[in-house]
Amino acid sequence: MITTRRSILGGAAFAAALALSPAMAQAPTEIELFFPVPVDGQLARDMAALIKEFNETHPAIKATPVYTGSYDETLIKTRAAMKAGKPPAAAIMSANFLLDLRIEGEIQKLDELIKADGKNNDGFMGQFFPALYGNAVIERSVYGVPFHNSTPLLYINAEHFKEAGLDPENPPKTWDEFAAAAKKLTKREGDRVTRWGISIPSQYDTGGWILQALTYSNGGRWFNLDYAGEVYYDAPSTLGALTFWNDLIVKQKALQPGVQQGGAVTTAFLSGQASMMLNSTGSLTHVRNNAKFPLKVAFVPKNLQNQVPIGGASLVIPIGVDGERRKAAWTLITWMTSPEKSGWWSRATGYFAPNMNAYDLPEMKAFLEKNPDAKVAVDQLAYAKPWFATYKTVVVRKAIEDELQAVLSGKKQPKEALVSAQKTADEIMKPYVEQTALKLPTN
Amino acid sequence: MADTVLTSGLARPQAMRLAAWRPRRQTMLAFSLLAPSLILLTLFTYWPVIQVAWQALHNQIRIGGPQTYVGLANFAALFADAAFRKALSNNLLYAFGTVIPSLVLALGFAMALARSSRVNALLRSLFFLPVLIPLVAAASIFLFIFLPNAGLLDYHLAKLAISGPNWLGDPDIALWSIMGLTIWKNAGYYMLFFLAGLQAVPADAYEAAILDGANPWQRLRYVTLPYLKPTIGFVLVIGLINVVTQVDHVFVLTKGGPSDSTNLLLFYVYQQAVESYDAGRAAAGTLVMLALLLAISASSLRTLERSFGEREP
Question: How far is B112 from chain A (nearest CA, A)?
Fold first, then answer.
């Protein structure tokens, strides 16, 4: 009797489970993707289009893109969501925050997921440009998947070049040529400058990146690539870079004093009020589509060597995302970084595609044929080094950006500014350094 | 009757004894009536303040890491931090530079537009318009206005052959630019209070003043302003509180830069809390801000009470 009832109940439960399971499988796994828009352009619209396509091709997953502001704001919002116990399944994170997130134990190692796909870490990373490894692989584990990446570029208004008697086909390659061209391109009416030779963003977030680029091209190091507790703010190579930047204001008088916001730099360039700009390749599509003059792009001019930091962002999975959501996030991440999607995103935005295989696809070849300027950043990649990543990156970066801004505003001399920046940065990193590099065995 | 006993009872022992004789029910009633606000206040104001105070005495190197008691070290670090002192002095300048001008402007608008006519109604709406725009949106508009060279402001200055400064990029000017936005944003709001205040001035007071031969200036000085005293006091309080609590525009326009020249207290606390994740120092900064706000409200409430007391000459 009892047995029968139990078996009936069991049978019913089994039937119910059978009936339910297809329905369960149909209910899609819902995941959110936090994404920033760090440069000019229609990135938010493009992202919506990309995710829509993903959802259409993956009925078992429903991904929702969540716009989270700049890179810095995305970091803050992801941290807030994690603290509230609701981490997004995936986030597009500024590539240089990965180390910091790893130190704080906030993002997952992706090794297992890569293994589950039948690959090893080297094989998986092998599809991306080697210059990107430094901001994605930490202690031999993969923490981020490169999604879109950039380098600084020199943008040139070819019309102004001709007007000033310069050759747009032969853009400045060295600091000397660069400074001379900037001076020549500057136009005045009496004391009033009507056109600046050059415009360079120096607001928080981008100022440090550009100064890093100048320091690199001045033969210098910006931070310790192997250990997150050292920066070289008061090194001679940094001083040379900052002095060069400052000279564009005080000597050549070809750059407006004070701090330039990123948006203002692009506006000035597009409206013909600045003849050149140093800016991210991430803005390339936007600038190309809106420039009413022949546009040229070139490498960042060098002093001692061609070298720039990479920029851009990687996809990460925060701690606390597991089970089906983790799997779904991984599916989204691998889809978004595939050669096809990577290439599509690159053509839509101007970032270069981190996936090297993207450049073998016919649509990419055709695009580069038509837009040779899109190839410059990829070529420059051969000379790229990792982006500034340290303990408390945002704050340590702010330490030098505050001083950079003081110099550009004529408040401080480069030398004293850099000494003070170094002091502030060391102070911020002190607790970390004491717990790592300075911590010795006690017995 | 019961009211007087309840309120004055705390002060005098005799009344207290009397109160004790009252049925308990009355006290219960008072508390049950107070309960909703008391619970909300405790949950969302007092408890967080206690938490912040506790946090201010502790340090945490990593998020979720161990908390160690450090006494007043966070406060010491706070005042040793040049950025905090800069934020503090910026906030003081910002307070004087925005509250007084927007108050004077608002009073001017209100007096000019107090009389109702179709034109005045239109002008009043125009002055009030900035209030309706969210601060972040207003800041985004001003981002374009302040744009060097290509911006609206410099575009018009260029017509006069003046080259405008780098409005948000020059540390000597940036804070003043932001103050301009704040005044533009708040003056219309304060105007509303003054409009209401002006309606309360009895017409016969003006008649009497005119009969006495008072000129317009004297009428303003001896009739209008005394009647507006409570309004001025009130506007001062909300103005000063706004100065400490509104920072959205700083976030949009300058992120506190160049070199912290537009950093304000609340933004500094935000930086400490979310950029440096230094919860201890952020908490200490919050307490300093809280103390300032308390001082402002306490002193202005006293002034307000006094003004209300003098209301009837």
Answer: 38
Residue A9 is predicted with a pLDDT of 47
What is the per-residue pLDDT for A8? 47
Burial of residue A67 (CB within 10 Å: 0-12, 13-18, 19+) is middle
Residue A261 and residue B168: Cβ atoms within 8 Å?
yes
Cβ contacts of B135 within 8 Å, gap of 6 or more: B185, B246, B248, B249
Residues 6 or more apart in contact with residue B271 via CB below 8 angstroms: A395, B256, B263
Can you read off the two tokens belonging to residue B310? 């003098």
Mutation site, A402, A411, A427, interface B, largest B CB count within 10 A: A402
Distance CA A271, CA B60 (A): 49
Strands A90-94 and A29-35: parallel
Using CB atoms, which residue from A258, A428, A435 is nearest to B169? A258
Distance CA B70, CA B96 (A): 35
- The tens digit of pLDDT for each residue in A41-58 reads 678 888 999 999 999 999
Are B271 and B279 in contact, with CB atoms under 8 Å apart? Answer: no
CB contact under 8 A, A402 and B260: yes
Report the alpha-carbon angle B157-B162-B168, nearest 5.
Answer: 70
Which of chain B's residues have a Cβ under 8 Å away from the Cβ of A405? 171, 257-259
First to last CA, chain B: 28
Q: Is the ipTM of this complex over 0.85?
A: no
B61·A104 Cβ contact <8 A: no
User: Lowest-confidence range among B9-13, B233-237, B259-263?
Assistant: B9-13
3-state secondary structure of B64: coil
Q: What is the pLDDT of residues A370-388, one digit of tens each?
A: 998 888 988 998 899 999 9
Q: What secondary structure, in 3-state letters, does chain A show? A: CHHHHHHHHHHHHHHHHHHHHHHHHHCCEEEEEEECCCCCCCHHHHHHHHHHHHHHHCCCEEEEEEECCCHHHHHHHHHHHHHCCCCCCEEEEEHHHHHHHHHCCCECCCHHHHHHCCCCHHHHHCCECHHHHHHCEECCEECCEEEEEECEEEEEEHHHHHHCCCCCCCCCCEHHHHHHHHHHHCEEECCEEEEEEEECCCCCCCHHHHHHHHHHHCCCCCECCCCCCCECCCCHHHHHHHHHHHHHHHCCCCCCCCCCCHHHHHHHHHCCCEEEEEEEHHHHHHHHHHCCCCEEEECCCECCCCCEECEEEEEECECCCCHHHHHHHHHHHHHHCCHHHHHHHHHHHCCECCEHHHHHCHHHHHHHHHCCCHHHHHHHHHHEECCCCCCCHHHHHHHHHHHHHHHHCCCCCHHHHHHHHHHHHHHHHHHHHHHCCCCCCCC
Pair A159, A195: CB distance under 8 Å: no
At a CB cut-off of 8 Å and minimum separation 6, what does B2 contact?
B22, B26
Taking the mean position of all CA atoms in its chain, how far away is CA B283? 21
Q: How far is CA B43 from CA A320, A403, B38, B46, B50, in A?
A: 29, 42, 8, 7, 11
Tokens of A300: 């960042």
Q: Do A256 and B169 touch (CB under 8 A)?
A: yes
Q: Tokens 């993956």 sit at which residue?
A: A58
Best probe of the A interface among B170, B175, B263, B270, by most A CBs < 10 A, is B170
